[in-house]
Amino acid sequence: MTTTLPGGTLTLADDLTISRMGYGAMQLAGPGVFGPPKDHAQALAVLRAAVELGITHIDTSDFYGPAVTNELIKEALHPYPTDLRIVTKVGARRGDDGSWIPSLDPRDLRAQVRENLEHLGLETLDVVNLRAPGHEETSDVSIAEQFSALAELQQEGLIRHLGLSGVSDTQLTEALTIAPIVTVQNLYNLANRQDDALVERCAAENIAFAPFFPLGGFTPLQSETLTKVATRVNASAQQVALAWLLQRSAAIVLIPGTSSVEHLRENVAAAELVLPEDAVAELDTIGR
After folding, report:
1. Mean pLDDT of 48-53
2. Quick check: 264 and 23 in contact, CB under 8 A?
3. What DSSP string describes 139-206?
4. Annotated catalytic, 64?
5. Which pLDDT tens digit goes with each residue over 70-120?
6. What are the tens digits of pLDDT across the range 154-165?
7. Quick one: which of 236, 189, 237 has its CA closest to 216?
8. Which one from 23, 64, 80, 188 is the annotated catalytic residue?
């Protein structure tokens, strides 16, 4: 087992220290994040390799599959290493056709938390993020009722820490009046810089900012500038994009997903890549 945590660590609470390079389990499910994996044994191997590489931060949700990724995590890693922290999300369901259906009724949020507990084989969830309405296109609609439901479950001991996903600055402010927050998970990458100010706020308030789709998601990042920089520093474009995020702010934690052990190792190697100032300056022009 490695003793060096990829990208260093971020301590968010007395009982919550995570590796800044994490792993997002979404891609372990089938096509469209729906149904079982193409290769069950490979999915388990990826999860075990993540832990072996020093990752202590796995991002998941019961609506991946649905339930598929959580059950894979349980099969591969339970009983869990004492330093492993699993971050999950609630706020959506999946249709029979694989569609994504917002589900934010407080009663169903409570049910979703219990389903995550069951499928992960846990009595308490380390972190639960509330997936806000709109998600990729944030708004200022109130999330007080939904977040309060999760805060109640925290008081009951089913959740240790709370976070948000797909939120605006206004929604973060509102939620903080209800309970402390340790993570914000929003769309952010080299080409999507609309949350620059929110990244800075999270750094100031010791809240982890976890970009989802750090490599562009279903439409991978493509940029002539990114390709040129990658060639110059002798790394892949994906590694450079991840390294840029780690250097962008000490509050940023990464959760790139993959269903390949080889790609997982490449992602983790990005945590050791230090981009020179001139390369960072060039990359900064992509999203502006």
Report:
1. 97
2. yes
3. -----HHHHHHHHHHHHTTSEEEEEEES--HHHHHHHHTTS---EEEEE-BTTB-TTHHHHHHHHHTT
4. yes
5. 999 999 999 999 999 999 999 999 999 999 999 999 999 999 999 999 999
6. 999 999 999 999
7. 189
8. 64
Two tokens, residue 262: 């080889």
Whether 218 has a pLDDT exceeding 80, the answer reads: no
Give the span between the Cα atoms of 79 and 69, in whole angstroms.
16
Of all residues in the chain, the percent with pLDDT exceeding 90 is 90
Does 288 have pLDDT greater than 80?
no
Calculate helix-pair angle for 169-176, 144-155, nearest 10 degrees. 40
pTM for the full predicted model: 0.95
The full DSSP string for 28-71 is: GSSGGGBSS-S-HHHHHHHHHHHHHTT--EEE--TTTBTTHHHH
Six-digit token string for 32: 């469209």
What does the pLDDT read at residue 214?
Answer: 87
Instruction: Enter the tokens of residue 186.
Output: 């929003």
Q: Count CB atoms within 10 A of the CB of residue 2.
A: 11
pLDDT of residue 1: 37
Residue 58 φ/ψ, nearest 5 degrees: -115, 130
> Of the candidates 261, 269, 221, which has an alpha carbon nearest to the alpha carbon of residue 27?
261
257 is written with which tokens?
Answer: 């997903």
CA distance 163 to 61: 13
**Pick from 22, 7, 6: which is nearest to 59 by CA?**
22
Non-local (6+) Cβ contacts of 286 within 8 A are: 190, 191, 223, 225, 226
Cα separations in angstroms, 245 against 131, 192, 209, 237 = 22, 12, 10, 13
Q: Which residues pair with 57 in a beta bridge?
A: 85
b/e per residue 223-251 (b: at least 16 CB within 10 A): beebeebbeebebbbbbbbbbbbbbbeeb
